[in-house]
Amino acid sequence: MARNHQPDQSTFRAVLPEDIEWRSFPAFPPGARLAVMVGHPAEPGPYVVRVKVPGGTRLMPHKHPEDRIYTVMSGVFYIGLGETFDGDKVMAYPPGSVIVLPGETWHFHWAKSGEYVTQVSAIGPLGLEYHDEDDDPRAQPAQGRRD
Q1: Where are the beta strands (DSSP E) in 1-147?
Q2: Sign of CA dihedral 42, 32, 89, 118
Q3: Torsion sign (Cα): 43, 46, 52, 58
Q4: For residue 143, what are the CA distances in angstroms to 24, 74, 109?
Q5: CATH number for 124
Q6: pTM for this structure?
Q7: What does the pLDDT look like over 96-138, one tens digit per residue?
Q8: What is the tally of structural domains in the chain?
């Protein structure tokens, strides 16, 4: 009986750090980058992405429909829960930390102490909804974005 594999998982392969392709992502603030490691995040099924955020950047309150598992790869990942950004409520997670974030949970991130990289594992499709549409970079004029 033939086994049905998940997308991008039917043959052995490795993704080396030098082969990671970082791209801007319309739902992220300027400078933040996303790399698809495994799978197809826009489609149903498992996926793994990495997110790189430059120091000082804030991802304002938002939520995802899918449950997510974050692994901190480098830097310190600051995350807080709630519908309003509050820098006093962020918790700091060093490299190696694993954070479980249930779907539909309002949260925010802050690269408070410098650049961080997280790896996100989830079952797609990936979604991202900002609490305040004025915080959504997709709602900003394209000419105003600097990537």
Answers
A1: 33-39, 45-53, 58-63, 68-74, 77-81, 91-93, 98-101, 107-110, 116-124, 129-130
A2: positive
A3: positive
A4: 15, 31, 25
A5: 2.60.120.10
A6: 0.90
A7: 999 999 999 999 999 999 999 999 999 999 999 999 999 999 9
A8: 1
